[in-house]
Structures are given as structure tokens and as C-alpha cells.
Amino acid sequence: MSAATDTGTAGIAADISTLEEQISAAIAGAADEAALEALRVSAIGKKGSVSELLKRLGAMTPEERQLNGPLINGLKTRVQEAIGTRRETLKSAALEARLAQERVDVSMPVREAAIAQGRVHPVSQVMDELTAIFADLGFTVAEGPHIETDHNNFTALNIPEDHPARQEMDTFYFEPREDGSRRLLRTHTSPVQIRTMMSQEPPIRIIAPGRVFRCDYDQTHTPMFHQVEGLVIDKSAHLGNLKWVLEEFLKAFFEVPNVTMRFRASHFPFTEPSMEVDIRCTRVGDELRIGEGEDWLEILGCGMVHPNVLRNVDLDPAVYQGFAWGIGIDRIAMLKYGIPDLRTFFASDLRWLRHYGFAALDMPSLAGGLSK
Predict the structure, then answer these.
(1) Does the structural domain 120-359 have CATH classification 3.30.930.10?
(2) For 146-205, how does the pLDDT look when each residue is reduced to its tens digit (9 = 90+)?
């Protein structure tokens, strides 16, 4: 913007009028605060057009400065006020535009937090339930490696060399080592019992939950599944104790007041005598009810620890005796929570987990209820 060079009062007044019209039009046309700030600098900044008028006062006579000074300062004041007003208008418009763009539809449901969306897998839930039940009965949790020796998995458990379980069609073996021995993926959690008896002095009361591996795959079998075994070693342990422990466990796990059990003679190399345990059940439509009815359901295997197993861990069977049992965690999870196919446990289907899973912070307890 240019200004006339006439230093007379009439010339200054004309320059002020023209400049004010130009600046006012520019202010009105500023599209945003950034453009308005650039306009402010060009008008009343150190080298702005209004500031240049003020510099001309130095070349005037005292009388001319007395007349023109208020005119120029008045222009500066009006420009500042116009810029301030326009800035507030632009701020309000920007806020309204932002509110329109970021508005919240309060009628929409609130999105769940990540912790609320997460689900605990039924297998993990059942493991926590088992831990809570047996902790109340005085048991501790013992763990062991997934890769085991042939000795801990078979030999120490009184399983003969020609037993079918030792065949490669049933067991996952690793390549032989230099000494000819072969490691394997444990086929049950019984090696944890062996390790515990070799490292602890009786009395022993443990449960051993964990993953086990066998060459099998169909609707009720998978190559990797979960099992929990229990072991009690003491000088006075007997079948009556075993029956009571299993009865209390089954009542607590299935959350029923009574469970009718039936013990059938069976054979396991590591127990003598050995028994299969059945429980009363009935079906009402698609629902399986545990603890009542006229049908029987096989639920687990158990027995008194074989004397040879005790000898293999340097315990005298004339002094110590004990009992043990084993049960499939995946299977009892299917029974309790109505899951029809074992393979879905490992399918990584988020829809399945949302349906059958459990809230992350609802830890099972006997006081608060196992399943919530």
C-alpha cells in the first residue's frame, strides 16, 4: 500500500482515509487467524503502512504534528480494534466448525475398554478353578518341563519297555542323543510327580496341571491337550482319603451339592490297585446335569501309587504309601461349559472366545463362586 508524500494536513487526512478503507477491506476478507496476523504485521507492524505514516510526523512542524498526530494514532487504534474483532469472529467460527466435526453422538453405546473386551480362555479358567479347589484342600501346585526323559516319563512310572504308549505312533520323540537316549514331549504330567518325589521328603500333597502331547487328533482328541494330576504321599494315606478328595473336588468343580461316584477296577502301570471313576449324570435336552440321574459318566482314573514307583524314587513302600489321580482339563471344561468340540479350543477364533471366555478380572474362588 502506498501513501501520498504531501505532508499537509489535507494530504495526511486523504492518505489516512484511503489506507483505512484498504485495511478494513483486507481485515474483512481475512479467511483465518494466520492471514489476519500477516495483515496486522503489514499494517501496524514495525514496517507497516500505518507505522510509516507515523514516521512522517518527524518531518512536520509542531503545528502539523499537533493536527496530524491524533489522526494517525486514531487510525492505528481503529485498525487494532478491527483486527481484534475479526480475530474473535474467526475463533468462534473455527470452534463451531470443530465442534460440528468432532461432535459425539450420546445415543451411541460407549465402547468397552480393552480390559473389558479381553477374555480368559476356558482352559485357563478351569486351571484357576482347580488351583482354588485343591489349595483349599491343602495341595500345592507343582510344575515340570514339557520336554522329558524316557526315564521320568515311562521307566520311573513302572511302564514296561514293550508298553504301547512307548511307540512312536503314540509319543512324540526327538532325535537320539550321542548316548542313544531319546528325549520326548511328555505324554502326561506324571513326570512332575517323579520329580517332586525325588526332590521333596514326604508328606507330599501336590497337583500337577499342564500341557501334554500325544499323536492323536479327532473331535475329542488333539495332539496337545491339558491334564491335571494329583499326588499324595504319606505314611497313612489310603483309599478312603482318595475317595473323599475326589468327591470334594467334583462337588466343588461342578458346583453341585452331591456327587454319586462309582469305582471300577482298571489297570495303570503306576498304580495298584487302579480304578476308573464314574459319576452319576443325566441329560435334559442338550444340557448335561452332573451328580444326578440314572446314567454314568467316566470322569477320571486313579489308584494307590505302585510300590515300584516308590522304589524308583528311593522311598520305602513298607513305610510310605500314597494315591494319585489324573483328569483331562479340556474334557471337564467341555462338560462343565457345554463345549461340543475339543478342536475349537485351539482354533484361535475370536468369536468363540468371546462366547465361551471369561472376564479377565473375575478370578475364581470358592467363596465368590468358581464360574461367574
Answers:
(1) yes
(2) 999 999 999 999 998 888 888 888 899 999 888 878 899 999 999 999 999 999 999 999
Mapping DSSP onto H, E and C, the string for the chain reads: CCCCCCCCHHHHHHHHHHHHHHHHHHHHHCCCHHHHHHHHHHHHCCCCHHHHHHHHHHHCCHHHHHHHHHHHHHHHHHHHHHHHHHHHHHHHHHHHHHHHHCCCCCCCCCCCCHHHHCEECHHHHHHHHHHHHHHHCCCEECCCCCEEEHHHHCHHHCCCCCCHHHCCCCCCECCCCCCCCCEEECCCCHHHHHHHHHHCCCCEEEEEEEEEECCCCECCECCEEEEEEEEEEECCCCHHHHHHHHHHHHHHHHCCCCCCEEEEEEEECCEEEEEEEEEEEEEECCEEEECCCCEEEEEEEEEEECHHHHHHCCCCCCCCEEEEEEEEHHHHHHHHHCCCCHHHHHCCCHHHHHHHCEECCCCCECCCECCC
| pTM, full prediction | 0.68
Between residues 219 and 159, which one has the greater pLDDT?
Answer: 159
Segments making up each domain of the chain, as ranges: 9-101, 120-359
